[in-house]
Amino acid sequence: MKLTLIRHGETNANDNKLIQGWTDNPLNEAGINQARRLQAFFETVKERFDVVISSPLKRAYDTAKFALSHINDLKIIVDYHFMERDFGVFEGRDALSILPVILEKNFTYKGYEDDKMLLKRVENGLIHLYNKYEGKNVIIFCHSHVIKSLLIMAEPKKYDYRTFIDNASIHKLTYDGDKLKVLEFNMTV
After folding, report:
1. What confidence tens digit (pLDDT) does each residue in 151-165 have?
2. Which residues lie below 8 Å from residue 100, measured CB to CB, with a gap of 6+?
3. Considering 10, 81, 84, 171, which one is annotated as catalytic?
């Protein structure tokens, strides 16, 4: 299975360096423009996707709608496995001061989706996709920590939750039911 992972476009929370997690923020003007650049890119390269998946959060779903607006019969499948990490009580707080603390190895806090929980949720989503779409070309519009989870599963010595992922970036991987392989990382258009 071929996987193309797209981080959603920018939101005001991204611009203001706030943790948003499950908070359902819309794209801002810069984020809409990023999604339109993705659309121009995908239209130019003419890559066909068999399946379009999105997190249910507006910022990811709307990035998918803009980026693939050139496809007439676009069907976006919402999959909760690919929602952002649930940051719990840390949502809405300053990312620059909070992330260094909560991204420490083995950090847990009531209501916070820790690394093990997040990795398990994303892995379950990956397995579900593979069982349903083996051999297909799948694009997923999702979030930074979801992409990081898949990168960690592929190359745990190279990636972690501190790895920087650009808004509207493209990441390409393959999955054979056993191993994830990273082909492209953090490509922007």
Report:
1. 999 999 999 999 999
2. none
3. 84
